[in-house]
Amino acid sequence: MEFKTTNTLFLYNLSKIVLLFFLFFSVTSFAQDKTIKMPETRWKMLSYDMGNVFKGVGYSYTRPLHWQGKQWATLGYTMAGTGLIYLVDEPVSDYFIGIKEDIPKGISNYGFSVGSPTNNYMITGAVYLTGLALKDEKLRRTGVLLIASATSAGFLQQVLKSAVGRARPLSGKSSDTFRPFWAGNKEYHSFPSGHTILAMTNAHAIAKQFKSPWVKTGVYAVGSIPAISRLWEGKHWLSDVALGVAISIFTVESIDKYLDSKYNQKYNEGSKKISWNLNFAPGQIGVVGTF
Prior knowledge:
It contains ten helices and four strands; from the N terminus they run βαααααααβαααββ. By secondary structure, it is mainly alpha-helical.
């Protein structure tokens, strides 16, 4: 059954959807003081690391049991931000679809390829296998983080797409047209953006390896191309992409904190971390990262 929502009804449904999302993820801190004994052979390393992939996914789904006020506040900000972005979905979509022919072919192809599940796991698998071959704990941990984050967030977005059933821009329907639990037609798999989630989980996990804010900015800029490409391709609305970015960040942060208890190598320990905030101003809606 297809129906259209009013703004109020959409925001009400959105609040339930985002609550479901936050029931999977948290950004609570996880302390680690003692030295962890690492396996010595590659086979044992592989077994240990793959175990941490599955445990990391499970960890990301259970953190709400440990939520405090800060996490609930973040839920509220995410709901409010996604709801406000929804209000400008259609004009933003019209603009990006209108400039599609001006986008260089190489950038357009890159945007599609990097966000596809097959290519994503080829990249993340290559990172992990390189770390395993070199017996490099930090690189192995990075690979585990990449694989676990993509698996956790990827599964969630598939569930949400089918449950929400939002029409894509290319369907010709409006941004408030839905067919809930309509898994058979991919024209109603708009919310949230899977390409955005896979690309931005990679970008956020890789950016953690570097201290330089310039390098981090470059990594995020490259990682944002698949997200933006979904707009000019007419595959997703801006709010689909925005929630995809939020899911990516929260997933990586949650699993990374779990891995603090499993590996001795930390990412840039002692350096200033990035804080993410929603930014609302006249004519501006966005996510701001402070380095």
